[in-house]
């Protein structure tokens, strides 16, 4: 089964969900564990999973907002 490519919109949604979980009092460890469950689904490549975890960490720490994640991702797309 071919892995699905993670979209910029999905990364922004992940960043938003991360912020929501953080604001509800969940720790970064718990949020990363939730993201780690995606690995079991087999839907994403290891590079995509690393990217997802990076988005989670940056959103949790307030380094990037969901909008910034979306824009940064779109800026990296081939034109």
Primary descriptors:
mainly alpha; flat
Short description:
This protein is an all-alpha fold and 79 residues long. 71% of the residues lie in helices and 0% in strands. The radius of gyration is 12 Å and the shape is flat.
What does this structure look like?
The N and C termini lie far apart (28 Å). This protein has 79 residues and is an all-alpha fold. Helix 1 crosses helix 3, helix 1 packs antiparallel against helix 4 and helix 2 runs antiparallel to helix 3. It has 4 helices and no strands. The chain has one domain. The chain is flat. The longest helix is centred in the N-terminal third of the chain and has 16 residues.
Average pLDDT confidence is 91
Helix percent reads over 70%
The fraction of residues assigned to DSSP E strands is under 5%
How many strands, which pairing sense, and closed or not: the largest β-sheet? none
Taking all Cα atoms into account, the compactness measure Rg is 12 Å
Shape: flat
Number of strands: 0
End-to-end Cα distance, whole Å, is 28 Å
Provide the domain count. 1
State the low-pLDDT regions, or none: none
* Tally of DSSP helical segments: 4
* Class by alpha and beta content: mainly alpha
Order of helices and strands: HHHH
Helix and strand arrangement:
Elements: H1 8-23, H2 28-41, H3 46-60, H4 66-76
């Amino acid at each position: 089964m071919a892995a699905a490519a993670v979209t910029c919109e999905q990364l922004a949604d992940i960043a938003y969900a991360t912020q929501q979980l953080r604001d509800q009092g969940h720790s970064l460890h718990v949020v990363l564990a939730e993201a780690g469950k995606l690995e079991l689904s087999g839907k994403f490549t290891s590079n995509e999973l690393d990217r997802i975890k990076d988005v989670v960490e940056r959103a949790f720490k307030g380094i990037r907002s969901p909008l910034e994640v979306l824009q940064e991702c779109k800026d990296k797309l081939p034109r």
